């Protein structure tokens, strides 16, 4: 058993809040998205004591599902692909377990390339990854601070409720600007080249509309469409029919605004934004929206990312930044980054 594991208290069930100051872990992971959960599962499999914390109410991050009345929506990531052999093996495991299935295939190549979805919702794959892990939700990290001397250095993680824990290693998986703020609050010294690398990451926002319809949509099977991919001025990048997709029992549409529209309308009145997007989507809706909600993904996808699996801010004790800012704007990239971060921490512990 590791030193941290010997010091820590019994893990909590998935929920909110920490038991008391004095808990310690081999690895503390900030963010219960695909990267954080992947890293946690890999580290836990080696016997490390691992805790994952997230400010949200559920696991998955941008792999997200929401309910409105009787309707269910995938309102974050819509599908994912698999290229890396290791990730493809994981996807095949999810399919065998019933957590994922093929949704449709692209038109390119022999037989097309599979697009997978979570079954019944996208959050199913995050829930599959989080099963058996120590995950604490509704808990916001304020800072990470180095403590101890050179031979016994560790990281002290402070939360919004003023409680603290210590960890031998820390993995940060939030969007890079949020991770940098956590490090700034803890006065962590970041080498200038590393800081420049992290600050070079750029993101595009996405405004999502979830609309309950009073009848079927006009979207052709399998239920997802990029309406006008050759028109950069069109305000919508994607529309999906959650009922056709198998997510919802009633007619429910997810609309993703384009990055340009989202960026230009972040400060606009939400009602006006929703009205504009529903109007633009009307040729594909075919029915009236009887209820809708708007959600803003401020860091929807990295438009300028890093060509590395993760970024090591400190080698000993390990402090690593990971997530889809590394390797690209794909769910697969987030998983690969989680594995890379876990490898760094395994080596350092």
* Classification by helices and strands: alpha/beta
**Alpha carbon gyration radius:** 21 Å
Instruction: Report the count of strand segments.
Output: 18
Which regions contain 5 or more consecutive residues with pLDDT less than 50?
Answer: 1-21
CATH superfamily of the largest domain: FAD/NAD(P)-binding domain
**Major sheet attributes:** 9 strands, mixed
**Average pLDDT over all residues:** 91
How much strand content do the residues show?
Answer: 25-35%
Text of the CATH class of the largest domain:
Alpha Beta
CATH architecture label of the largest domain: 3-Layer(bba) Sandwich
Find the CATH topology of the largest domain. Answer: FAD/NAD(P)-binding domain
SSE order in H/E notation?
HEEHEEEHEEHEEEEHHEEEHEHHEEEH
Oligomeric status: single chain
Proportion in helices: 25-40%
Query: Could you give the distance between the termini?
Result: 12 Å
Helices, by number, come to 10
- Number of folding domains? 2
Basic shape: globular
Note down, in words, how this protein is organized:
- By secondary structure, the chain is α/β, with parallel strands linked by helices.
- The protein folds into two domains: 3-62 and 128-201 and 305-348, FAD/NAD(P)-binding domain, CATH 3.50.50; 203-304, Polyamine Oxidase, Chain A, domain 2, CATH 3.90.660.
- It contains ten helices and 18 strands.
- It has helices at 3-7, 34-44, 85-97, 123-130, 176-185, 192-199, 242-245, 259-264, 270-285, 331-348, and strands spanning 15-16, 24-30, 50-53, 65-68, 71-74, 100-105, 114-118, 135-137, 141-147, 154-159, 164-172, 202-213, 224-225, 236-241, 252-257, 289-304, 311-314, 319-321.
- Strands 1, 2, 3, 8, 9, 10, 11, 17 and 18 form a nine-stranded mixed β-sheet that branches.
- α2 runs parallel beside α10 (331-348).
- The longest helix is centred in the last third of the chain and has 18 residues, at 331-348.
- It starts with a helix and ends with a helix.
- The model is unreliable at 1-21 (pLDDT under 50).
């Amino acid at each position: 058993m590791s030193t941290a594991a010997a010091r820590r208290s019994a893990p909590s069930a998935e929920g909110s809040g920490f038991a008391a100051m004095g808990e310690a872990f081999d690895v503390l992971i900030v963010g219960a998205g695909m990267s954080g959960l992947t890293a946690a599962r890999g580290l836990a499999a080696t016997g490390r004591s691992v805790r994952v914390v997230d400010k949200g109410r559920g696991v998955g991050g941008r792999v997200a599902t929401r309910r409105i009345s009787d309707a269910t929506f995938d309102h974050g990531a819509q599908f994912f692909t698999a290229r890396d052999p290791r990730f493809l093996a994981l996807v095949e495991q999810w399919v065998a377990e019933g957590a994922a299935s093929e949704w449709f295939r692209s038109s390119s190549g022999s037989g097309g390339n599979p697009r997978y979805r979570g079954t019944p919702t996208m959050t199913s794959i995050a829930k599959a990854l989080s099963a058996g892990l120590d995950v604490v939700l509704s808990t916001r990290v304020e800072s990470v601070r180095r403590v101890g001397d050179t031979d016994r250095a560790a990281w002290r993680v402070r939360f919004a409720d003023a409680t603290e824990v210590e960890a031998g290693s820390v993995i940060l998986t939030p969007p890079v600007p949020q991770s940098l703020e956590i490090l700034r609050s803890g006065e962590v010294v970041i080498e200038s080249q590393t800081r420049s690398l992290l600050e070079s990451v750029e993101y595009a926002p996405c405004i999502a509309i979830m609309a309950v319809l009073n009848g079927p949509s006009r979207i052709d099977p399998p239920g997802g469409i990029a309406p006008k991919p050759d028109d950069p001025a069109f305000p919508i990048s994607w529309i999906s029919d959650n009922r056709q997709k198998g997510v919802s029992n009633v007619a429910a549409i997810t609309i993703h605004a384009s990055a340009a529209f989202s960026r230009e309308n972040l400060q606009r009145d939400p009602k006006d934004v929703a009205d504009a997007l529903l109007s633009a989507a009307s040729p594909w809706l075919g029915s009236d929206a009887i209820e809708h909600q708007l959600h803003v993904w401020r860091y929807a996808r990295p438009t300028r990312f890093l060509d590395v699996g993760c970024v090591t801010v400190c080698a000993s004790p390990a402090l690593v930044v990971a997530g889809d800012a590394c390797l690209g704007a794909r769910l697969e990239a987030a998983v690969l980054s989680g594995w890379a971060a876990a490898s760094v921490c395994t080596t350092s512990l």
